[in-house]
Amino acid sequence: MSQAAIPEYIHQWLLNYRLGNLSPAWIQLKKGTAWVQLIGGQWADYFNNEPILNTDISIYCDVLQGMVPIQESFELPHMQLMDNQYTNIIALTDETCDWLLFLDATQSTLELQQYQQVANELNLLKDQLDRTLSRHVGQEVTQLTMDGKIKLNSNGERKEISTLFVDIRGFTHYNEKVDAQEVMNTLNTYMHEMLQSILDNHGIIDKIMGDGVMAIFGIANSQNNHVEDAFQAGLSIQQRIQTLNTQRAKNQEEVLGVGVGIATGEAVLGILGSHERRAFTAIGKHVNLAARLESNARAGEILLDEVALSSLISTPKHHTINLDLKGIGKTNVHSIIVD
User: Fold this and answer.
1) Which tens digit of pLDDT belongs to each residue from 284-317?
2) Which of 151, 177, 254, 302 is deepest in the core (most CB within 10 A)?
3) Which long-range contacts (CB under 8 A, 24 or more apart) does 104-107 make?
4) Phi/psi of residue 21, each to 5°?
5) What's the CA gap between 204 and 267, in Å, rounded?
6) Domain ranges across the chain
7) 321 vs 113: CA distance, rounded Å
C-alpha cells in the first residue's frame, strides 16, 4: 500500500508556521572546507555582517571555530550568536557540499531558562525544608515526609502502628559505680545493638531516652506487616544482646540485660513542641501500654499485648500473665523468653 501524500494545506502550514516561526537561514560550504559558497534565508537574524562568498564561515560565527570543515552531521543547540538571541545550528553533509542550517531558538531557550530557574528555586526551598525538618524530626522521618508516606502537621495523622520500647536493666546501679567515660562507652555499645535491630526491621527511632529507646513500626516501607517487623526487631535485640554479653563476659566486663515491650493499635503521628524545638512522635493508648510492658519486662524477656500477639502470622511459644499495669489496670500480656 502506498503512503498518502501530505495534503498541500498541511504542507504549507508546516513550512509557514513551523519553519517560518524559526526564521531559517542556510549556508552552503565548499565540500570539506569552511568556505562559504551560497547563503540564503533570514541571515540578518544571525549575523551582524552578511557572510561574503569564498570566506571562512568561522569569521562570522565564532562558535563554529574548530567545528568546520564538517566531518559528520551534528547539532549545536541554544547557541547565542547575537545579544538576547539563541540559535540551533544544524550541520549536514552530503557527497557534493556541506550545509549549515540556522533556526531561531530564542523563545524555547528563554522558556527553558525560566523552567530551570523555577526548578532551582523549588530545589532550594526543598533543601531548606529538608534541613529544617531534619533538625526537628530526624533525617529518616524527613525522607518519609518528602516521599508522602507521612504527614507532619499540628493535628497529626491517625495510623495503626506497632510501638516498641526497650530499656537496659540495672543500668542505674551500673552508672553509679563506674566511671562516666566507661558508662558512655558501654551505653553506646548496647545502643548500637538495639538500634541496629530496629533499623534492620524497618523501624523508625522515635526517641532515645537515657538507656532506653522508643521505636515505631508501620511507617517505613516493608514487605511485612508492622507487627511482624516489631516482633522480629524485639527478637533480634535480645539475641544480639545475648551475643554481646557472651563476649563481654569473656572479657570480664559487666553484662547488662534488656527488657522489651511491644503493643499494637491506632496512634496519632505528628510533631510536638515549640517553634524553637519540635520532635516527631506517636501518641495513643497502645503507646502507653507498650511503655508499661517494657517497664515490667525482665532481662531477656519480650512482653506483647493481645493485639500484637494475635496479629503475628505464626504464634510464638509464650505464656500469658495478668499484670496490674500503672495507669492501665489489670491486663493480660504475653511473655516470650528468648533463650
Assistant:
1) 899 999 999 999 999 999 999 999 999 999 989 9
2) 302
3) 104/21, 104/22, 104/23, 104/45, 105/22, 105/77, 105/78
4) -70, -15
5) 14
6) 8-104, 111-137, 138-337
7) 68
